[in-house]
Input
Amino acid sequence: MKNLENTMAAVGDQSHGSMEPIPVSDSSLHSPAPAADCDVLIVGGGINGCGIARDLAGRGWRVVLCEKDDLASHTSSSSTKLIHGGLRYLEYYEFSLVRKALQEREVLLKSAPHIMWPLRFVMPHDPSMRPAWMIRIGLFMYDHLARREVLPGSRSVDLRRHAAGKPLKDQYKRGFIYSDGWVDDARLVVLNALDAKARGAEVLTRTRCVRAQRDADGWTADLLGPDGTKRTLRARAVVNAAGPWAESFLRGVAQSAKGEALATKSLRLVKGSHIVVPRLFEHDHAYIFQNPDKRIIFAIPYQDEFTLIGTTDIELSGDDPGAARIAQEEIDYLCTQASRYFDKPIVPADVVWTYSGVRPLLDDASGDPSAVTRDYMLESNTTAAPLLSVWGGKITTFRKLAEDAADEVGKMLGQSNAQRPAWTDGAFLAGGDLSGWIGAARRPDDDFERFVSAVQAKHPWLYGQLARRLARAYGARIADVLGDARSFADLGAEVAPGLFERELRFLQDNEWAVSAEDVLWRRSKLGLHYTAPQREQVALWLQTHPKNN
Output
């Protein structure tokens, strides 16, 4: 098992921040294969599939992506929402993975400062868990495995004097602080899909690939749309980015030219669950807690009014990954472990929302689900028409995974990296270029605050909370959402508090939103702030105002 590490010295020189496709020679834009509707069919609309679609489309490849549900409707919207190196992976000697992830943190933070920002983490020291010297060594490595320009380094902290010590039990007197980043994971997927579409990719949601027949020259795929209409297309190559369904895609949907087995790897499906409770502390730091079982959990400021606590590691066997839900035992576990640190105990009755995601980890025969590698593997199969399968991965390394995958697809289709070079290192995601509002970039977190001020100055009628929410969600694209609106009357009816018809139409027309769940739990987290009747109002509006075709 070998990760594809096709590092190019000239990546920085090839970076593009515009929304235009990367220039390539005229001859490279024409497929030599007859009757191909696209160069690459990507199956799976999570972070890996959308990231690969973006990268390939930006290199001039003709891309079609299909997702059986909504974008990011499974694993990619159910993470702990961190852009992090993975401090705990150092204990498993995953130095290559940690370094790769650390290198990606600031690349991502700079690409979309509206949905990603730096976050400081506090680790209260419990001598019974790990000795202080071990933590200091680990943090030293964490600080120095990759270059940092934005994120400050680690330090010790006296919890008796620091604000982070106030909500903790008195026994925790000493701790450590280090840096990582936060991301709105579901919006990260959508921004990649938007960039892919802007560069020429066709993105099909609620469209299931029901058959992919391979022959020597390409693939014939049957796609079943949301209205039951079947579409058959020809693709020169297929990328299997189906996440938890990647193995079952190869064992059922994909059919080989000569009857050979396409599935050569096995996935371990590990459920990670989170709970959300009313806000447990006032400061803006997050916590990382060490547990007696040698696992860790996070307690993170969430949506201003809440605290997010997670995650668990529960192995699934034989269950449908899409049906994963938190078990009572997981709720009890997270409440118990968090209560070991917080002065005020957390009980199951405090939980206001839960979510669970299934991590598709490559089976390495490890007995402990927490020890299974989070690194990715790209498996190429060229016995006939090219097939690339994505195994494993984590949200922090999605851009590098996509770059490696696009390199490999290009090779399989007969194009060198020099002809279609890597370009995403240094490129903005949709809405991430704030320079039109604030001038030259400085620091991602400071840039965003300057951006919010600029939005409020241009639209003084927008009250602060709404201006900040729209700025967070859309970045520079806020101009497209607001259009020529000069007052709240121009936004249409207020369907639910702070959610107007104009934004709902924008999400329908531009971000593939169809249902209330799409809007309230993936394109935003407004569902967490609304009552059941308010959520129902949004659902009713979407049902009675379908997208304009």
